[in-house]
C-alpha cells in the first residue's frame, strides 16, 4: 500500500527541487521519514481494534465528571460561607488555588484510567482481538497513519489526549466556579460550554477551521488526526495537525486558567 505513495513522493520531491519549492521538499522529506521504513511481517485479528479506538462514550463520561468536579471547587466555598476564612489562611489565597488545580488533574487521570482500562478489558473479552504489539498502520483504516508505534502505545496516547482534553474543559468549569456563587450554576454553565464547544468543532470549516486547533473537544476525537497524514503549512514548514491541536489546546487552557486565577484574587472577595 505504501510503495505507490513513496514512488509518487519521490517524483514530487524531484519536481519541487527543480522549481525551488521549499515547502514541498520539506513535506516530501517528512513523508519519506514517516512511511519509508514500514514493514509488516505478521498479521492477526487486529482490525477489531478499530472499534476500541473509535469508541467515545467513556470519554464523554470522563468529560462530564471533570466538569462536575471542577464546578464545586470554588463555588462550594461560597455556598458554605467559608471563602473569607479560607483566604485569611496563609495558603488560602494562592497556594490553595494551584492545589485544587492539581487535585482536578489527578482526578481526571484516575477516572480516565479507570474508564479506559475498563474499555480495553471489555473489548478484549467481547471482540477477542490479537496482535497488541503490531504497529498501528497494520490496522486497515490506519494504513496511512503517520505514527510508527504499536497498537497498545497508540491506545495509551489517545487515552492521554482525552484525559488532557477533559482537564482543559474542567479548567473552563473552574472559571465558572470562581465566578458564580452556586455549584449548580457553575455546572450548568460548564455543561453548556461543552455543548457549545462540540457545536463549534462540528460546524467550523474553511477560514474558521483554525478555531478547531484551539478547541479542547478536538482531543476527544484525536484519533481522526492520526488516521492519515494531515499537515499544515506553518512558515513554510509542514507541521502535523495533531501537534497544532495540542499546542492550541494548551494555549486555550492557559488563557482560561489565568482568567480563573486573577478572578479568584479579586479584592472584593478578600476578608
How would you describe what is shown here?
It is a single chain. By secondary structure, the chain is mostly helical. The chain is built from ten helices and two strands. Strands 1-2 form a two-stranded antiparallel sheet. Helix 4 (57-71) packs antiparallel against helix 7. The protein is globular. The termini are far apart. The mean pLDDT is 87.
Concise summary:
With 271 residues, this protein is an all-alpha fold. The chain has 10 helices and 2 strands, in the order αααααααααββα.
How does the SSE layout of this entry go?
Layout: H1 2-19, H2 22-35, H3 49-53, H4 57-71, H5 75-79, H6 83-88, H7 95-127, H8 151-179, H9 183-203, E1 231-234, E2 237-240, H10 241-264
Antiparallel strand pairs: 1-2
Helix pairs in contact: 1-2, 4-7, 4-8, 4-9, 7-8, 8-9, 8-10
Can you give keywords for this protein?
271 residues, mainly alpha, 10 helices, 2 strands, 63% helix, globular
Helix share of residues? 55-70%
**How many strands, what sense, and barrel or not for the largest sheet?**
2 strands, antiparallel
β-sheet strand percentage: under 5%
**Overall pLDDT metric:** 87
Find the count of extended strands (DSSP E, 2+ residues): 2
Radius of gyration: 22 Å
Helix and strand pattern: HHHHHHHHHEEH
The general outline is: globular
**Structure annotation, total helices:** 10
* Major β-sheet strand ordering: 1-2
Kindly name the structural category: mainly alpha
**Termini distance?**
68 Å
